[in-house]
C-alpha cells in the first residue's frame, strides 16, 4: 500500500510512526524514567507519534492508570529534552494504561492481552505493539515465555509485534547465543530490536557521513597513512548504585564488547554498497570477522581497578570499598586492548580500545592518528613540538570533529612548527536540534527501521573477539590499581609503547 | 550593540569581524546568510525570529530596511554579535534616500563566503523573488503571503512568479496538518470521494492545503470559510464514512475516523521563529510546494 499523501520528494513531512502502542516492562527503573519515558514524550512533542499512540506500563504495583500516568508525567517533567506542553501531554496521557501484576503470573498477561486488545479498538493501535523489556536480563526468560504462551507475541496478519531489549546481550558467547535462541523462539529475528544507545547518537552516525560523503579523508584512511587508531570511552563516575550489575561484569563486557567494537567497525569498515541495513551490516560484519587478537594478550592489554583518590576536587572511594563489592573482587573497571584488522586496508595498524571508570573526565572519542610526514625540510629544532597529525571524532560530550596538524608559530624569527587544532562543533553548526539517542531509536522501533540496531550476528562476533581475553584475564587475579581522577593504570602506556605509540590525552 | 552611522557595507563587515575578534572567537561555524528585506513594520519581528532560528541554524542575519523617503543618501547600521541573543550575528541596516534602490551593493560584502544565502521578505515581496536585486543572490527565497493586504490574490502572484527555490510561509504553516493527514493514510482508508477544507477567510494556507489534498488524492475539494483561527477542519469522505480533523481553537485537534474512537492531536499554531527554522532546514527547491501552488484554482 502506498500512501497518496507521502511523496518521496516531500521532505518536510516527518517520518511519523503508524498506529501503534508500546508496553513497558520495568517502569520504575532508572532507564525507563530517565530515558524511555522522556523520549516518548519528546517524540510526541515533535509530532512523530501517531495520534492514537498508547503506552502500557506493566509492574507489580498496586496502581491505577492515573498513578502510572503520574509517574510518566513526573519523569517527563524532570527529564524531557523539549519543553513541557500541556496539549502534547493531554494527547499522550489519553493513551496511558497500567497493568498490575507479577512478571511470572499468567493472569497478569491475560489482563495485559485484554488491555492491548482494548487499545486496538479504543485507540486504533491496530494490533501493532512493541514490548520494551527494561528489566534485568535474568527476567527475560520468564517474560518472554509468558509473552509467547499468552499469544501477545503473535502478530495478526498485517500487524506487528516487536520486542526491544537492552544490553547486556549476554556475558560471553555462550550466554549470548542462549539469549538469542530464547528471544528467537518467541519473536522472529526481524522483530527483535537490541538497543545499543551509542548507535542512536548523531555523532556516531556522522562517522559514516564524514567518511563516505567526502572526498578528502577516504584516500588517507588506510595503513599507508594511518599509524594507529585509538578509541576511548572514559567515564568520570564510579559504579554508583550499580554494584549488583557491575561486579563480575566489568569494563570489557560492559562497554568494549558493544560500544567500542561498534565504533571500531564504523571507523574501519569498507564503503557499503548502499545505506540499506543489510549492506551496512554486511560491511560491519566483515570488519568484525577480520579482527584478530594479539598473540600475547598479557603484553598487549591492560586492566585496572580504581583506587580511592580525589576526582575533580572531591574525595572518592576505591572500587573495592564501594558498597556491595567484595574486597577481593577481580572485576576490572578499566580495560585496554590492542586489536588488529586483517585486511589490505588495515594490516599492521594497531587499533587500541580503552574504557574505564573514574578517569579524568567524561569523554568518548575515536582518534585516527596519522604517520609523521616522511621528510621534514625544517631544522630539527623547528619541529620539536610537532606531533602526529590526527583526525578525531568527538562522540560525547561536546560532539564534533577535531583535526590536529602543524602550523607555523607566529612572530618567530625562523620558521617554527607546532601542533594546532581545527574544530567542527556540532553544537555550533546544528545547535540544539540534536535529539536524544533514545528518541531516534524508539521511533525506529515503531517504524520498524532496523539499521541502527545490532543484529545477533554482530553481538556474537563481539563475544568471539573478547572471550579469549576475558578467559586470560580471569586467570590473572587482581587488576592493577589506579588512582581515581587520572587516566588509568600505568600498564596501558607500556602496552602501546611496545608498538612505538603513545596514547592521546583525550 | 554597535551603531555605525553614515557607513558602508564593507565597514559593517569589518565591524562584525573585529567584534568577533575582540570576543576571542574570530572564526565561526555559521552555516548561512539570511537577508531580511523589510519595512520598519515587519523588520523587528522578522529579525527576532531570525535570531531565534539561529539557535538551530547559526547564521549571519542582515536586515535591509529601505527608507527612500529622506533626502540624504546614507547607510546606518546596528550590529549585534553573539552574546545572550544567540550564536548568530545580526546587522540591521537602514538604507536612506537613493541608496534604498541599491540594497544589493550593501548586501554583497556581507555575504558569508561559500555558504548558502537565503532571502526573506516578511511583508511585501517582489512579484518574481528570483528576479529581485537581493533575491538573485539567494538560493532560497521565502515570502509570506499571509502578510499581504489580499493574501489570496498574493498566492496567485506567488504562483505566476514561481521559480525553483521559492517558498512561502503559508506552506510551512501547513506541515503539522499535512503530517496528521498523511498519518491517516498510513492505514488502508480506501478511495476518497470528496474533501472539504474549512478555515479562516483570507488565510492563504486554506486554499493551499485544498490544492495539495485535491491533487494528491485526485478528487474535488470544497473550500468553506469561517472565522478561524487559521485552518479549522478537514473532512475526507470515504466509503466507510467521513474522516475528520477538526481544530476549533488553534491548539488541539480531534481526529475522527470511522470505527475508531476519536483521538486528540496537539496541533498548535507555530510562531515565526519555528516556521523560519523549518524553512532553513532544507535549502534545495521544494517541489511539493511548487506542485501544490500549480494546482491552485485560478481566481474567479
Automatic annotation (TrEMBL), chain A:
Domain Glucose-6-phosphate dehydrogenase C-terminal span(s) in chain numbering: 208-504
GO molecular function terms attached to this record: glucose-6-phosphate dehydrogenase activity; NADP binding
Domain Glucose-6-phosphate dehydrogenase NAD-binding, residue spans: 23-206
Pathway terms, separated by semicolons: Carbohydrate degradation; pentose phosphate pathway; D-ribulose 5-phosphate from D-glucose 6-phosphate (oxidative stage): step 1/3
GO biological process, one term: pentose-phosphate shunt, oxidative branch
Signal peptide residue numbers: none
Coiled coil: none
InterPro entries, A to Z: G6P_DH, G6P_DH_AS, G6P_DH_C, G6P_DH_NAD-bd, NAD(P)-bd_dom_sf
Keyword Oxidoreductase attributed: yes
GO cellular component: cytosol
Residue stretches spanning the membrane: none
RNA-binding as UniProt keyword: no
Keywords, comma-separated and alphabetical: Carbohydrate metabolism, Glucose metabolism, NADP, Oxidoreductase
Family recorded in the similarity comment: Belongs to the glucose-6-phosphate dehydrogenase family.
NCBIfam families linked: zwf
Name under which the protein is recorded: Unannotated protein
Upper taxonomic lineage: unclassified sequences, metagenomes, ecological metagenomes
